[in-house]
């Protein structure tokens, strides 16, 4: 009962501080705010439950478990206990000596007020310097137990050729130590998840983390697999990337920069050229790695110039021509029908041999208003051409995705800064860039961490001031917070880590 009278106030203060310190994090918008709120609810709820247990169940358990005892001589009791008792006695003596020395040193330091204020000011400056100098990050990449393989062949490659290359790449990956299963898909662009006959993707499932060990982490396996596949497959680009840290924000790890044609009006071929220049510059930049773009304007295609006046004379509406080309060259869903207890889908499409050559396409027919069949070559001029297989726009502007990742040991913030400097030097007038996915969220978060720390300290101070009805006692407690942050940041720097969301949550808890 006497003990609870002494510690109850401190327990309540600790619980209130742990709950209130996360109030500012609930005000952070966007994806960072979602992460902060999840940690805030979890830690605040745990602190509240711990406070209730400490005030109710713990005293009752202590009364049952802790019994009064009498001090015994060192030589009393079993012989084997005597060395233990002597060791405990020596420890108590040493601890009392250390406490006495610490108290005397503290008294001398307090009397040197001016010197200590100068030292404290220097430590504050050092803390601010480490906050700004520590590399920034957003959400650290984690080993999620699987990898994504992106395959790209030359433009116009057939689906059969793509499938053979994808299967070969997946076969090489499946024989690697640490890989247990997976699946491959030809005709699917792994970077944009759009359909393309010259692209493919395969997913690699890794064995359990405990079985792989640190030598076969997802990051290291990605590097090994990329090198192994590149050495055995020619005529195709194969990249092994990690999944995004947050599902739904991008299709892979790292960053995605959208290179945009804002006013150059050079078309997608111009975008392809400046994107290639960015890729070349990124190869010379040590802070980024695996910077690539699968965009290509060399995909073979047939351009149909419809003579609308001639089509009208032949009784063919231009829309009929467009629909016929879309059905023959692409496909059109017709309907479903049931037969023998099964449902079949009907899709209209020209046979491959009927659309294999430009002359074959010209012989395809469209029905006129009189019911006669008119060849496409009669109403349209068909010429061979090339262009992008997929037209990309970002914020209504023509754009191209440029994907990459920060080099090992480089924070994501430094990687983004390196790409921004490269874009400033490389992109000609009329071109610009924007971030998307996780990189966009990281740039939007900006310097919210410093504001969160300041607000957290203010909330803690107000709670303590309200509880103790004084300003000096909470101020004495708050003065140690910058030192705690400095020590934590030094540990982060020594480990080569960055100041990401998880680090910031830990610092907020440290403030409490």
Q: How would you summarize the topology of this molecule?
A:
Blueprint: H1 2-20, H2 30-55, H3 57-65, H4 82-111, H5 113-133, E1 146-152, H6 159-174, E2 179-188, E3 195-206, H7 209-212, H8 218-232, E4 237-241, E5 255-261, H9 267-283, E6 288-292, E7 299-306, H10 308-313, H11 318-330, E8 332-339, E9 342-348, H12 358-363, E10 365-367, E11 373-375, H13 376-379, E12 380-387, E13 393-394, E14 397-406, H14 412-426, E15 431-436, H15 438-445, H16 448-468, H17 472-478, H18 481-494, H19 501-511
Antiparallel strand pairs: 1-3, 1-4, 2-3, 5-14, 5-15, 6-14, 7-12, 8-9, 10-11, 13-14
Helix pairs in contact: 1-2, 1-16, 5-18, 9-14, 16-17, 16-19, 18-19
Describe the structure.
The strands form 5 sheets. Strands 5, 6, 13, 14 and 15 form a 5-stranded antiparallel β-sheet that branches. Among the domains are: about 140-240, Multidrug efflux transporter AcrB pore domain (Alpha-Beta Plaits), CATH 3.30.70; about 300-385, 2-Layer Sandwich (Multidrug efflux transporter AcrB TolC docking domain, DN and DC subdomains), CATH 3.30.2090. The longest helix is centred in the N-terminal third of the chain and has 30 residues, at about 80-110. The chain starts with a helix and ends with a helix. By secondary structure, it is of the alpha+beta class. It has helices spanning about 1-20, 30-55, 55-65, 80-110, 115-135, 160-175, 210, 220-230, 265-285, 310-315, 320-330, 360-365, 375-380, 410-425, 440-445, 450-470, 470-480, 480-495, 500-510; strands spanning about 145-150, 180-190, 195-205, 235-240, 255-260, 290, 300-305, 330-340, 340-350, 365, 375, 380-385, 395, 395-405, 430-435. The chain contains 19 helices and 15 strands.
């Amino acid at each position: 009962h006497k003990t609870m009278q002494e510690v109850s106030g401190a327990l309540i203060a600790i619980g209130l501080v742990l709950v209130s310190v996360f109030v500012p994090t609930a005000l952070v918008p966007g994806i960072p705010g979602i992460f902060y709120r999840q940690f805030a609810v979890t830690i605040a709820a745990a602190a509240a439950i711990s406070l209730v247990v400490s005030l109710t169940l713990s005293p009752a358990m202590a009364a049952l478990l802790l019994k009064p005892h009498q001090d015994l001589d060192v030589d009393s009791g079993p012989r084997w206990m005597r060395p233990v008792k002597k060791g405990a006695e020596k420890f108590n003596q040493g601890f009392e000596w250390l406490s006495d020395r610490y108290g005397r040193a503290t008294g001398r330091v307090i009397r040197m007020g001016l010197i200590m204020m100068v030292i404290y000011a220097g430590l504050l400056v050092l803390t601010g310097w480490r906050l700004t100098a520590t590399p920034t990050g957003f959400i650290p990449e984690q080993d999620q137990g699987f990898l994504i393989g992106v395959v790209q062949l030359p433009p116009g490659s057939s689906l059969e050729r793509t499938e053979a290359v994808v299967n070969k790449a997946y076969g090489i990956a499946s024989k690697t130590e640490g890989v247990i299963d997976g699946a491959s898909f030809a005709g699917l662009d792994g970077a944009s998840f759009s359909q393309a006959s010259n692209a493919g993707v395969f997913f690699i499932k890794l064995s359990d983390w405990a079985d792989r060990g640190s030598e076969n982490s997802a990051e290291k396996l990605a590097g090994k697999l990329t090198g192994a596949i590149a050495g055995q497959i020619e005529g195709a680009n194969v990249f092994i990337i990690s999944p995004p840290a947050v599902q739904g924000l991008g299709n892979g790890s790292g960053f995605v920069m959208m290179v945009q044609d804002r006013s150059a009006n050079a078309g997608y071929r111009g975008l392809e050229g400046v994107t290639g220049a960015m890729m070349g510059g990124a190869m010379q930049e040590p802070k980024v790695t695996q910077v690539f773009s699968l965009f290509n304007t060399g995909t073979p295609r047939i351009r149909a110039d419809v003579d609308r006046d001639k089509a009208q004379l032949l009784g063919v509406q231009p829309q009929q021509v467009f629909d016929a080309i879309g059905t023959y060259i692409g496909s059109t869903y017709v309907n479903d029908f049931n037969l023998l207890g099964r449902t079949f889908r009907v899709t209209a499409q020209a046979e491959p041999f009927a659309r294999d050559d430009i002359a074959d396409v010209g012989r395809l027919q469209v029905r006129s208003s009189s019911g006669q069949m008119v060849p496409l070559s009669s109403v349209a001029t068909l010429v061979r051409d090339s262009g992008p297989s997929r037209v990309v726009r970002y914020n209504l502007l023509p754009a191209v995705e440029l994907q990459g990742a920060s080099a090992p040991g480089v924070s994501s913030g430094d990687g983004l800064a390196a790409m921004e400097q490269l874009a400033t030097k490389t992109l000609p007038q009329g071109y610009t860039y924007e971030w998307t996915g996780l990189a966009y969220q990281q740039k939007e978060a900006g310097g919210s961490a410093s504001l969160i720390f300041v607000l957290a300290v203010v909330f803690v101070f107000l709670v303590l001031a309200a509880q103790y009805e004084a300003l000096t006692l909470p101020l004495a407690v708050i003065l140690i917070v910058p030192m705690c942050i400095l020590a934590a940041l030094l540990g982060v720097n020594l480990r080569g880590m960055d100041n990401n969301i998880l680090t910031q949550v830990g610092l907020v808890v440290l403030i409490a």
